[in-house]
Amino acid sequence: MYTQLEQRGMAEPPVNVSTLRKMKQEGEPIACLTAYDASYAALVDAAGTDLVLVGDSLGMVIQGHGTTVPVTVDDVVYHTRAVARGLRHAFLVADMPFMSYTNPSQALDNAVRMMQEGGAMMIKLESGGGQLEIVEHLADHDIPVCAHLGLKPQSVHKLGGLKVQGREPDRAREMIDSARQLQDAGADIVLLECVPNEVGQEMTKTLDVPVIGIGAGPHMDGQILVLYDILDITQARTPRFVKNFQQGHESPLAAIAAYVAAVKDRSYPSPEHCFS
Questions:
Q1: Would strands 122-126 and 145-150 be described as parallel, antiparallel, or unpaired?
Q2: CA-CA distance, 144 to 269, in Å (whole number)?
Q3: Are 273 and 219 in contact (CB under 8 A)?
Q4: Tell me: the pLDDT tens digits for 51-110?
Q5: Domains and CATH numbers, the chain
Q6: How far, in Å, are 5, 31, 258, 269, 275 from residue 247 at the CA level?
Q7: What 3 state SS string does 6-29 have?
Q8: Among residues 26, 117, 133, 193, which one is catalytic?
Q9: Is 193 annotated in the active site?
């Protein structure tokens, strides 16, 4: 398997920010997944995944918590370091956990740790108008940023649960306006979670940077899911937008490759995985 990865890495250069922008411009869907350790990262990479996120979802699928809130910077750095060892081709993004970016200085310190100690190539933070100064500060220090909009799991207690966002026209417009402002502040990618199809489509058309969806409809520049969900490992109830790709495939590698192919040919997500 590792020989295969080395050969793949020699055949084509690793994905970078410029690659992702070019994929958007050329209309090639960006296939993204989470990973939390070197072994699964190697499989995800071998299957042709373009972007790998070490998400704070690790708090739920790895640590067994009910939310992502307990995850720490040390947790994300540890898992990012492990995932980095398994990748040769995919672009590596690390999540900024709850309360790790309350001001520009703190955000920069923790982002530097993600990159220097963890090996991340970009950091992701749950965003909105209140994070514009933070995104701009990180961008000014050459830290690539993925801005997360829509459903923001770190705000689960404020939201009163994990719910579809942007169904009201004013909230949808506010979200799209925030995305544009974050792009102007220096965000390189936007991740949009759990919104109606129309919101995802409008945001993707509006922004120049790639917009990656999770439960945001079929009209996105790319799709991302939690690895354990597509492999049917997750024992808890999964969201509507999840599809079990392990079913009908004899190995995790085959299932991951099927997911990548479905994103690339836009057969995933289908209507049953979307919100209106």
A1: parallel
A2: 27
A3: no
A4: 999 999 999 999 999 999 999 999 999 999 999 999 999 999 999 999 999 999 999 999
A5: 2-273 (3.20.20.60)
A6: 25, 19, 10, 16, 23
A7: HHHHHHCCCCCHHHHHHHHHHCCC
A8: 193
A9: yes
pLDDT at 129: 76
Tokens of 45: 């990479």
This prediction has a pTM of 0.93
Give the model confidence (pLDDT) of 192-243 as tens digits. Answer: 999 999 999 999 999 999 999 999 999 999 999 999 999 999 887 888 899 9
Q: Are 86 and 6 in contact (CB under 8 A)?
A: no
Cα(241)–Cα(177) distance, rounded to whole angstroms? 25
CA atoms within 13 Å, Cβ hemisphere of 139: 18
Greater model confidence, 7 or 146: 146
Residue keyed to tokens 């996105």: 220
| Beta carbons of 231 and 43 less than 8 angstroms apart | no
For residue 269, say if its preceding peptide bond is cis, omega within 30 degrees of 0: yes
